[in-house]
Design goal:
The protein is mainly alpha-helical and 68 residues long. It has 3 helices and 2 strands, in the order H-E-E-H-H. Strand 1 and strand 2 form a beta hairpin.
Length: 68
């Protein structure tokens, strides 16, 4: 499932950027992100990850852009 790889990459970028703690986890049907700075950002990430699970990758691309 290519989407799962993309979701895991997004979580990895969040960890690498220091936006979430290193104990973050991207499972096949759920995510654990500790240390998100604000409720608004947590909601944005939750919505983007949920949409990506169902095939809409646009909001995830906006919320967690790929690095250079």
């Amino acid at each position: 499932m290519p989407r799962l790889g993309m979701l895991r990459d997004a979580v990895r970028r969040l960890v690498d950027d220091g936006e979430v703690r290193s104990d973050a986890y991207a499972g096949p049907v759920y995510f654990v992100l500790h240390g998100v700075q604000s409720e608004a950002r947590a909601r944005e990430l939750a919505a983007a990850l949920h949409a990506a699970l169902y095939g809409d990758l646009e909001s995830l691309t906006r919320a967690v852009p790929a690095g250079p």
